[in-house]
Automatic annotation (TrEMBL):
Domain Alcohol dehydrogenase iron-type/glycerol dehydrogenase GldA per the UniProt entry, residue ranges: 12-152
Family: Belongs to the iron-containing alcohol dehydrogenase family.
UniProt keyword list: NAD, Oxidoreductase
Domain Fe-containing alcohol dehydrogenase-like C-terminal: 165-347
Keyword Metal-binding: no
PANTHER family the record matches: ALCOHOL DEHYDROGENASE, ALCOHOL DEHYDROGENASE 4
Gene3D superfamilies reported for this sequence: 3.40.50.1970, Dehydroquinate synthase-like - alpha domain (1.20.1090.10)
Keyword NAD: yes
Record protein name field: Maleylacetate reductase
Length: 353
């Protein structure tokens, strides 16, 4: 097979070390000479944020964080950054918190240091997202890529098992979708395969023992690789579906990904044998779907969108909204009927086919 591709690697420093977040942040702030940090952390993460930013020159702590970054929430955070003359944004939290920092960076150009506390992976991408009137808009801008990411798996010890599973499967979705996304290349696929291996190793350990730091580290490492692959490869069918579901019906991000993923893999896997083979090898299974379903069983993964507020009556509307966003080069042919069937199965928690 001929190898020919163009790959952009995003410039970002990664500091990875359990129990090292405070020291890493302090080293970053000292090195860059920042003097007015705006810390962004949701109320639920405020204690954790306080612990890792203790001693830093913090000008303002902003806790007005809402999932999917509504425009009004972004505007309030931008005003706060200006009022407090922030020179750096330190985001501590999940994808919603990182997303808010990105919304501020988008219009102000302020640098971000991201301290993720879930496996969402937003910190490793140059993708921003904003929601207005039930429509989620995403875009790509170099300004929103965090300059540094501080990965500290000990900050994940408080993440409940169900959230860890859903978030870990959200990361796994980045890997799987990266195998056939519009800009995928062999580097993305190598990163995605190693991401699957690490998540498959780490997540069951977390379910068996939520305080297993080694399991948390594996999952976090896998989530980072997943996000790097996704940032380069772009959104495939899976992400197009989940973006519509999240923005239009306000469904929770991570569980939505966790539920939809096997249905997209069942559809695309047979139409993309090379990608499916890579996924299978990463899982150590006979095919991609078998590997994913084995993992999902071990994790007792989310099964049905109806458990997260999606109504059966919304299926046709969702299918119509997803259709125009389907990537033209998606491996399997996607007709309105195929989409409706997929979404209906995801709604009821049926076996994927
Ligand atoms: P989230 O940030 O909303 O967090 C989910 C819940 O987990 C929240 O209630 C939060 O308080 C809690 N939580 C977070 N860390 C915790 C911890 N360590 N201990 C206890 N509780 C904790 O959800 P998410 O799934 O991390 O992120 C979803 C958002 O990220 C969505 O808006 C999605 O679109 C965005 N996202 C963006 C990208 C990108 O590249 N731009 C990539 C992935 C996700």
């Amino acid at each position: 097979m001929t190898l020919a591709f163009t790959h952009d690697t995003l410039a970002q420093r990664i500091r990875f070390g359990s129990g090292e977040a405070a020291a890493s942040l302090s080293a970053e702030v000292a090195e860059q000479g920042w003097t007015r940090a705006m810390v962004i952390a949701a109320p639920a993460e405020s204690e954790l944020a306080g612990a890792v930013t203790d001693g830093l020159p913090v000008a303002h702590v902003h806790d007005d964080v809402v999932m999917h970054v509504p425009v009004a929430v972004a505007e309030r955070a931008r005003r706060a950054a200006a009022e407090h003359r922030a020179d750096v944004l330190i985001s501590i939290g999940g994808g919603s918190t990182t997303g808010l920092a990105k919304a501020v960076a988008l219009t102000t150009g302020l640098p971000i240091v991201a301290v993720p506390t879930t496996y969402a992976g937003s910190e490793a991408t140059n993708v921003w997202g904003l929601t207005e009137e039930s429509t989620k808009t995403t875009g790509v801008d170099a300004k929103v890529l965090p300059r540094t990411v501080v990965y500290d798996a000990s900050l994940m010890l408080s993440l409940p098992v169900d959230l860890s599973v859903a978030s870990g499967l959200n990361a796994l979705a980045h890997c799987v979708d990266s195998m056939w996304s519009p800009r995928t290349d062999p580097i993305d696929q190598a990163l995605a395969a190693e991401g699957i291996r690490a998540l498959d190793a780490g997540l069951p350990r977390i379910v068996a023992d939520p305080s297993d730091l080694k399991g948390r580290e594996q999952a976090l490492y896998g989530a980072y690789l997943a996000a790097v692959a996704f940032a380069s490869a772009g959104s495939g069918l899976h992400h197009k579906i989940c973006h519509v579901l999240g923005g239009r019906y306000d469904l929770p991000h991570a569980p939505t990904h966790a539920v939809v993923l096997p249905h997209v893999l069942a559809l695309n896997g047979p139409a993309a044998p090379e990608a499916d083979d890579r996924i299978a090898r990463a899982f150590g299974s006979v095919d991609g779907l078998t590997g994913l379903q084995d993992l999902r069983r071990r994790l007792d993964a989310p099964r049905a969108l109806r458990d997260y507020g999606f109504e059966e009556s919304q299926v046709p509307d969702a299918a119509r909204a997803v259709l125009p966003a389907v990537p033209p080069d998606n491996p399997a042919t996607v007709t309105p009927d195929v989409l409706e069937d997929l979404l209906h199965r995801a709604w009821e928690g049926a076996e994927p086919r």
